[in-house]
Amino acid sequence: MNNILIISPHPDDETLGAGGSLLKHKDNGDIIYWINITNIKEEYGYSKEKVKKRNEEIKKVIESYEFNDFFDLSLKPTSLTENDIPFIVTKISSILDKIKPNILYIPFWNDVHSDHRVVFNALQPFFKSFRYPFIKKVLMMEIISETDNQFKETFKPNVFVDISDFIDKKIEIMNIYQSELGEHPFPRSIDNILNLAFYRGSQCNYQYAESFMLLKEVLD
């Protein structure tokens, strides 16, 4: 049994990047945890109704995946800077010491969204095996509309996960985030999510797949 931790810069990144893989982990009897870094709040200028709706969405998502625990840092979205890194490191470190995950799912280092890049930079201390020996594998996610728009080093997947049995559930969960979805050609459309999974599946001889970049793996 594995202890899985996914770290999302924003709610919906966990589903876009690894929704099918999380469902597969759960089906295999693994323990799954979710750390979300940013969230909307009234003090950030969002309406009470919008905040309530987003928190209801998150609650439904947690229930849909059957996460064993959820941690929300609730930092201001689209506003993360290097100044937030010490806070993020401290908070995540305390969580890691508590749950001791052996597999991490994290954002790609060169995503277009600055929040994603700041989160990745904050996670680098946790790649050190002498400090966190229980972390055996670190996988960077492909998050549609963020990972597919780089201008430097591009995302080059080298790990593929068959999610054919879980694609319908992934789409069902993604539909909870109605405010984040749009119609094609908007990147975060159901059509595009399915098309990406279909394409990644064609690269590994499965119907649907999610792809990742392996950043680290320790084999016992």
TrEMBL record:
This is GlcNAc-PI de-N-acetylase. It comes from the Bacteria. It comes from Deferribacter desulfuricans (strain DSM 14783 / JCM 11476 / NBRC 101012 / SSM1).
